[in-house]
Amino acid sequence: MIEPHPLVAMIHAVPAAHRTAEEAFAREFPQATVWNVLDDRLLDDARGAGGLTGALRRRMLRLIGHVMDGGARALLLTCSSYGEVVDTARALWDVPVLKSDEAMFKAALAGPYRRIAVVASTPPAVPAAVAQLEALVPVVRPDRPLDIVTALSEEAAAADDADAAARHLADALHAADGAEVDAVLLAQYSLSPAREALAGLLGVPVLDGAGAAARELRVLLTPDGPPVPAAAVAS
């Protein structure tokens, strides 16, 4: 049975991701009823531990269990650093559970890009995003090579505005020999406001995950609705 206003839960590690994802759903999937859950220690604790620990994985699974018990018809985990927990959640709950950037990665891999940059402002986000991207390569583009460049700018996280964040990310990308990439992927929702400015500085497409995730859940939860055009997914 298709629900007219399906309850979509989102678990966030930073307030900025909450705002970005909610704006994306208002634009791309306004029929959804959005439920935001924020634990603003998730990212700091992962950073302090040097990555995910067993305790942090269990903590995220408890948060996921909380929204599932509350009737969520789908879940979006907006923190890329916790993406690996999604695999466990999918085995435990029979509703769509999305990693933060899966839809964006699929769109990028389906596109014409040969050299793709992954940029972030927090260290755990880089290996998590690259691992997801590499895992999708054999599925989405097994016969086409892909070169991945990574760049980290922790200064971007403390930037006063989107333009300043974009400049920090561009500087980090140039320092990482990423000047000749075909596209840039933002590894965190909190960086989405810098997308347009970064694209202007680099002269290449810059993709973010929030809108792509909203479009994918719209298709999954309202299968009688219009299909998502490939161009829209990659925007």
UniProtKB/TrEMBL annotation:
InterPro entries per the UniProt record, alphabetical: Asp/Glu/hydantoin_racemase (IPR015942), Iso_Racemase_Enz_sf (IPR053714)
Source domain of life: Bacteria
Name of the protein in question: Aspartate/glutamate racemase family protein
Family: Belongs to the HyuE racemase family.
Pfam families assigned: Asp_Glu_race
Source organism per UniProt: Streptomyces coelicoflavus
GO molecular-function term, one example from the UniProt record: amino-acid racemase activity
